[in-house]
Each structure stands twice: as structure tokens, then as C-alpha cells.
Amino acid sequence: MARKKIVAGNWKMNLSPAACNELVTALTAKQISLPEHTEVVIAPPYVYIDRVAGLLKDTTGFFVSGQDCHQKTSGAYTGDVSAAMLKALGCKYVILGHSERRGYHREDNALLAEKVNTALAEGLDVIFCCGEPLEIREAGTQNDFVNAQIAESLFHLDGAAMARIVIAYEPIWAIGTGKTATSAQAQDMHANIRSVVAGKYGQEAADNTTILYGGSCNAQNAQELFAQPDIDGGLIGGAALKADDFAAIIAAR
Ligand code: 13P
Q: What is the pTM of this model?
């Protein structure tokens, strides 16, 4: 099994309905043809998932993702959205553990383990985010920090479930700051992540795990980042909101 390459756009809480249509229409108009084992993923706000899935339905290799989901399957959780709802609207993936969810919504590793279980059980594959804050990077303990995030939220999974996880390394100090990790910093962390996955699930499983980089990734730096042996694509924020930039990042994969 060849390792998948993925370029994913996380729109966060951006775009009007009209701008959403315009962006997806501009992207599909580019008729980007993707090689085998390559996917483009778009994670719009919940309220646009239905329309984005509709606009992308004839575009090969393009998939839709939620930005989060609730850990329970249904119930009295005002304001929340279930994994089954995302699946029913055509999502292939859900992003879990984004640092903005961890920070603003106090999501911890144990809660994320529950969300991972629910998402997988409902038929969604998971883009699991990890990444350290600046003070951890400055203390030089980023590998331990990220390894704990991964172990505590994912390592209860069996091998078949783990094969449905994409890991996205997003150092918090690089998100929305214009301060990208250098390709060497990102490669070091990705190699560390692959080695902890290998330690738990074996080398073959680790070799098949897609590990994305996120954090101020853009049309200028994507090529160098994606050229690293353990970087299998990107999770893109700001630059995913412009069709030309996002297309250039897809081309850099
Ligand atoms: P930026 O690309 O805007 O830094 O955001 C990265 C990110 O958080 C993607 O999930």
C-alpha cells in the first residue's frame, strides 16, 4: 500500500456563503488532475458542508471534512454536530484535536480519544492534529509533548483503526503567525512521529501513515516542506482561502 499524499484546506470560521461558492467553483474550474494516492480535502464550516460536497461531487480526488465533531453519537448537546451528521452530508474525514479546539474549547487528550472512537465508528476517517506551544519548543521538549498527545488519544486503537488516521503536525507557534517551521524542524518532528507509530504498530503501518504539516504553509514554502521524506502534504489555513494559492500548494505536493 502506498502512502497517501493529502493537501487539506481548513477554512476555520471564514467566508460568506457567496465566497464559499466562488472559491470552490474557482478550484473545480482549474480541473486539477491528481495522481494516484493523492487527495485534496476541504474542511468548511459545518453550515457549508452540504453545498461544498455538492459542488465537489464530480471532482475526482477531492473530499470534504468536518472541522470537529462531538464525542457522543446524538443527544441534548446544543450547538454541537455529530459524526453521523457529517458522514451523512458526504464527509470522508473529520479534523480532531486542532489546537484552536484544544485551546478555546479545552479539549484534552482523553476527550479526543473519545472523539476519535466515535468518528471512526460512524465511518469517518480522522485527521488528528498535534503540535506544541512556543514555550515547549523553546524548552526543547517538543517530541515528548507531541508523542504524549498521540499516545493518549490514538494508541488505544487497533492496527485497522490506526490505518484510518492521518496525523497533522501543527506547531502552535506557526499557526496563522507567518512563522513556518523550517523544513528541517518539520522533518525532524515528522520522523519522530513516524518512529513512535512504528514502535507501537510496526514499521509497515508507520510507513503507510500520512503525516501532514500545518502552520503558515503557503504557495512559496510548500514545495520545500513537501519535499521532505516524512512530510506527506499539508493542512492549510489562510492560504486555503484563495483558489490560486491553494491550487499552487496542491501542485507542490
Ligand atoms: P495557517 O495556515 O493559517 O497558519 O493555519 C494552519 C492551520 O491551523 C490549519 O489547520
A: 0.98
